[in-house]
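Worked problem 6 (solution included).
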Amino acid sequence: MSNRSKFWRLAALVPEVQCPDQPISPRQKFKYTAIVLFIFVTASQVLLYGIQHQPRTIEPDPLHWLHLILASSRSTLLSHGIVAILVPEVLVKIWVYLKIITLDTSAPETGVLMNRAQRLLGILVAILGAVNFYVRSQHFTVNTVLIMLQILCSDIIVIYLDDVLRKGYGLLSGISLFTATNICVNILWKAFSPMSVVYPEQSPEFEGAVIAWVHLLMTRTDKLSAMSKAFYRQNLPNIINFLATCLFVPLAIFFQGFYIVLPVRTRRNFQAYCHIKLSHFLYGPVVLHRLLLPLPYVASKVLYKKYSGNTLVNLLGKWDGLNHFGQSIPVGGIVYYLTTPPILADLHRDPFHAFIYVAFVLISCVFISMGLMVCASSKGVFNGFVVLNMQEERRLRLAQPDSIHANEIRRHVMRAACVGGFCAGVLIIFADLIGVFCSGTGIMLAVTASYPYVDGRASEVGSFGF
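Solution. The predicted structure is:
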C-alpha cells in the first residue's frame, strides 16, 4: 500500500461534524456563531495552568502582528490561535497547486476527503505544537505534561469549532471569524480595558485609553494636564490613537465597497458589465508586505549584535537607540529608512527618511498586487473571475461606442491591480503615521473578513474574505 493510500485511509478515520439535514435559518446561524465565538474568546483569556504568570507590564510583544493575524494569545489556552486550521488549509492548497495531490473535482466525495485531510493535518500540527513546548522548556515534569495536554486539547477544539462553521452552521469560516474577532477584541481592550499596568518608576495606569482618560479627569485637579496625559501618553494607548482608529475604520470600509464598472463588448455585439472590486487587490499587498518586512529587521538586529563593526552589517542597519519600551530601535542604515517615522513631527525633521519610507511602501505594494494578479491569471483564476461577472451583469442591449472589447479586460484589470496596490500602500502609511490600534493591517483584515457577509457575498469568498 502506497503512502498516499495510507494517508487517505487514516484521514477517513478522523471524526467530523455532520452536515445539517435541513437548511439552517439565519437566526440559528447567528446563535451557533455566537456560541462558537464565546468559547473562542473565553479560551483566549483563560491562562494555562502550570505556568508562572508575571504581573502585567508595558513590555511589548515582538511578534505582536503575527499573534494578531493568528488570533493567538500568549500563555493562554489559545497560545497557537488558528495555526492548527490555517497551516493545513495552506498546505493542501499548495499540494493541489503543485499537483502533489490529484483531485477529481467531479466526484462528490472529493470535498469530504479534502476536509478530512485538513483535519488530520490540523491534529498533526497540534501535536507538533505541544511537542514544541516540551522542546523549548527542556524539562519533562508534571507541569510540562499538563501544559502540553492543555495546548493539544485547545487546538483540537479550535479545529472542530472551525468544522462546525464550515458545515453551514455559522455565518463565516473559522479563519476569517476568529481573526476578525481577535482584532476587534484587541481594539476594544485597548480602548476600554479596566486593567492597571505597571510602568517602571511611575504609578500604575489603566490600560484602556478611554478608561484612563476618565480616571485622569476625575483624580487630577489640573484638568489641562490630565487631558494632555490622556491624549499624548507614549507608553500606553491614548485618546489620539482611539480617535485615529475611529477615523480609519470607516475609511477601510469605504475602500472595501469601492468598485469600477467596465462596459464590455461581447462577441455577439451585446454589452455586458464587468465589476472590478478594489478589495480584491487590497488584501494581498497588505498581508505580504507585513509578513515580509520583519525579515530584514530581524536579520539586521541579529547581525548587528554579533558583527557591529562590519561595514556591510552597518549598511544594512544600526541598532543603538532605545524607545520608551526599552527596546532597541534602528538609528541608521537601510532598515532605518524602511521604518515608519515614530511621530508626525519626524516628517519635518527628517524628510529624506519619510520620502524613502513612503516610496518603498507604495512601490512594494504596487508590485505585490500586480505580481499576485499575474500569478492568478497564469492559473485561470483571472478568466473565471471575469466570466462570472459578465454572466451575472449581462444586459440585453447593443454595445455602445465607449465599450471595450473582451480581450482588453486583462489590461484594465492589471491597471486596477496597480491602483489597488497603491491604495493599500496609502492605507498602510496613513495608519502607521496616525497610530491606530492593532495597526492598519489588522483593521483591514477584520474589515475584509466581515464585509463580504454584510455585502451578501459570504458564500463567494474564502479565508479573510479574499
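Discussion: The beta strands are 196-197, 205-206, 259-265, 271-277, 318-322, 328-332, 404-405.
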